[in-house]
Amino acid sequence: MTQLRTADFLLRPLVPADAPALAAAVRESADTVGKWMGWAHPAYGLSDAEEWIAHCAAARRDGVSHEFGIFRAEGEVLLGAAGLNQFNRINAFCNLGYWLRQSAQRQGAGLAAVHLLARHAFEQLGQHRVEIIVAEGNAASLGLARKAGALHECLARNRVQLHGRPHPAHVLSLVPETPAERSMS
User: Fold this and answer.
1) CA angle, corner 181, sides to 143 and 129, nearest 5?
2) Boundaries of each N-acetyltransferase domain copy (predicted)?
3) Across residues 33-40, what is the average pLDDT?
């Protein structure tokens, strides 16, 4: 099982035993995450979490998605989730998405997740570009993407569906550093 870690955080695939913690985290975050992601609602239950975890395991086996739970370093406290998906095999790019439970927001877990997943995409999955798509108005996610070093490219009209309606979204990107850029750091 692929695990990605920093000193403070661990990203690992969710397993069936994580379902109760996932359901609780989503319900806790219905007011914040739910504003931007329709699946995060107050009635999100154990069966929803179990279905999502099974879906993620199948998608990982098929190589179409790499979704992770975000945990504190010891691997017990679920802070949210993040993943790589929507792979464009011809042009070697993918989407990076993330969400954090309300009580874990603005504590570094999201930034760590973006950095770990981007490195995984470039170094292990052979991607040349990682996109982060943020619905217009989602200042917290936009701020996190920018803090992670993503370059804002545009505000795209009707880029995402938000509660069943088309909504504009910011398109940001990360690309691997060139050797010259690394030597200047």
Assistant:
1) 55
2) 9-181
3) 91
According to CATH, the topology of domain 4-184 is Aminopeptidase (3.40.630)
Distance CA 160, CA 162 (A): 6
Taking the C-alpha atoms of 136, 149, 9 and 37 in order, what is their torsion angle to the nearest 10 degrees? Answer: 10
Instruction: List pLDDT tens digits, range 133-181.
Output: 999 999 999 999 999 999 999 999 999 999 899 999 999 999 997 444 4
Share above pLDDT 90 across residues of the chain, in percent, rounded to a whole number:
85
Strand ranges, E, within the chain: 4-5, 9-12, 65-72, 78-88, 93-100, 129-135, 151-162, 165-174
Q: Cα(121)–Cα(3) distance, rounded to whole angstroms?
A: 13
Q: Which residues contact 176 (CB under 8 A, 6 or more apart)?
A: 122, 128
- Specify the pairing of strand 129-135 against strand 151-162: unpaired
Facing residues of 133 across strands?
A: 171
User: What is the rounded distance in angstroms from the CA atom of residue 36 to the CA atom of residue 113?
Assistant: 19
